[in-house]
Amino acid sequence: MLWMQRGVWLWWQGRRGGCSGRVIWCCLLGLWMLLMMTQMILLQPPYLDHPALSRRCYEVRGIPYYTNTCCRLHNYTKGDVLSCVGNAHMTSLLSTRYKIETRGKHTLAKHRSHLETPSSIHSPNEYLLKFFKAIPQNYSFSTSSVSPPHPDSERPDLTWVMVGDSRVRQVFSALVTRLSSPRLHYRKPSTMGKWRSIHELTENLRIGKLHENIEVHHLDFPLRLLFYWDPLLTLLPKLLSQWVDNIQPHPALLVIGSGLHWMKNAASPKSFESPASAFDRFRQHMTSLLPLLAQQAKSTHIILLLQDHVQESQIFKKYLNIYSNNIIDQYNTFFSSYVSGTDITLWDSNIPFSDAYYVQCRQDYKNSYDMSWNCANPLHSGYVAVEMYINMLLNDICNPFLHLDSGYC
Question: Domain map of the chain by residue range?
Fold first, then answer.
């Protein structure tokens, strides 16, 4: 027994030749620590600037069962959205005042440039500072105004703009529905410029096919919503030029999306285009827009919504080569590289939700009048999914202004 103990002690001290037991133990301990650190790094959620809009952050088990692995999502109510608008406006006033004071100090001491301090307010999402540039500094916001301004007044508002096809209109509809109130008014070309209660619009906007521009205005809060029916994004260059040239006030938020109608061109009997040539024309058009979009993105929070997948099993055979998930992935892949190196935000978290929605449609085919489930439509996800999309968007743009915990997106 003593001989064995002496042998172990000599091995531990390295006196029996070869590596000592102490060295081997230290190497094994270091290897274990390296493996643990590697596991922690691999399991740690990726850091993303816009985790609410990134598909990398979502595990979707079905509708409405999902998990965001990067951060917590807040479930937005109408009150939350209006609080976001009010707080964002007040933050912009403080930011503008600080910039004016800082600019005055710098004017008195230009030769001491090393003393200059950044004129910005730090928040979890600093990219949202450009969110406020649409609000002039001389506007005083109050929710208790006895005599709220008329929609046609010159009151400066936060302007949120959505431009695109019917899928973008779905997102706009979900936002309007969430904000629905007697204090919300709308107008569009068919109302001859007259403002009407939003309750006349919400149902038709949700279940109808409105191919026209829509403007929505809140009487009590500095918020204006605009939807431009522009399925091919051919109107967008004019809008961008008006904003860049300051002909129209800059929007604080711009959401754009397109794709299906470019594919549809190849299905038209009057068209001799193939899906490949339709994609080439789409790519050329979007490439021509990039300089204007990149310039606008420096003052406006621009979000590019990728295309949902479709329910291929419900598409007529003659359209299968026109509307297919492979072709949609081609358009989405182009958009993913398109925004690289710009300040434009890519929104692709909708795609796994559209996949889960269509899986459930195949398992339990159902349709509802309010379009929550619309399995008969192979090209559009039901509002049970779109309501989740608008919640993602609101988490991206509003979370810093609700004083939420640090774990939220």
Answer: 66-109+118-142+155-401
